[in-house]
């Protein structure tokens, strides 16, 4: 029982590391956030961005 819980904690930690790397280097990945289907509206005093296909 505890061995399974330990494996689950290791998996959760690995996923957190991967998520952190994506957050750090996400802006450097080309086309992430600029996919067809993402809504981007830019006006004089207003900018709206809704990532439909990036999600």
Structural description of this entry:
The chain has one domain (2-50). The protein contains 1 helix and 2 strands; from the N terminus they run αββ. The protein has one helix at residues 2-25; strands spanning 39-42, 47-50. Strands 1-2 form a two-stranded antiparallel ribbon. A hairpin with a 4-residue loop joins strand 1 and strand 2 (47-50). It is elongated and about 60 Å long.
Span between termini: 35 Å
- On the 0 to 100 scale, the average pLDDT is 84
Order of strands across the biggest sheet?
1-2
Q: Could you tell me the number of beta strands?
A: 2
Instruction: Supply the number of structural domains.
Output: 1
Radius of gyration: 18 Å
Please mark out the parts with pLDDT under 50 across 5 or more consecutive residues, or reply none: none
Number of helices: 1
Largest sheet: 2 strands, antiparallel
Elements, N to C (H/E): HEE
Residues in helices, as a percent range: 40-55%
Give the helix/strand class: alpha+beta
Shape: elongated
Strand content: 5-15%
Tags for this model:
elongated, two-stranded antiparallel ribbon, 55 residues, alpha+beta, single chain, 44% helix
């Amino acid at each position: 029982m505890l061995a399974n819980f330990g494996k689950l904690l290791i998996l959760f930690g690995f996923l957190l590391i991967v998520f952190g790397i994506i957050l750090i280097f996400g802006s450097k990945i080309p086309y992430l956030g600029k996919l067809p289907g993402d809504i981007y509206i830019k006006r004089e005093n207003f900018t709206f961005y809704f990532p439909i296909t990036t999600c």
